[in-house]
């Protein structure tokens, strides 16, 4: 057998909804910093229901690390729920902060 080389198909894309005290505590900016540090594509935004929603796309290990980081969040956040689901949305070319929906 030949060596297996990573391909773009090995990338993972997920949508994450974070609940708790996650607005007004620097959560979106913290998410942008962490996602860019991990080399992920996607976006993050506040939702009018008080949650933060994000799409993360990249290598499976990096996406899973971002999921772990989101469970903790920045120092002033209190995450009470994290819902992760597979996503087929186009994550874009970079990681960005989007307007509230």
From TrEMBL:
The active site is at residues 28, 46. Keywords: Hydrolase. The keyword Metal-binding does not apply. InterPro entries: Acylphosphatase, Acylphosphatase-like_dom, Acylphosphatase-like_dom_sf, Acylphosphatase_CS. It catalyses: an acyl phosphate + H2O = a carboxylate + phosphate + H(+). Residues 13-99 form the Acylphosphatase-like domain. This is acylphosphatase. The keyword Acyltransferase does not apply. Its EC number is 3.6.1.7. Belongs to the acylphosphatase family. It comes from the Eukaryota. Transmembrane segments: none annotated. Residues 73-101 are annotated as: Disordered. Gene3D superfamilies: 3.30.70.100. GO terms for molecular function: acylphosphatase activity.
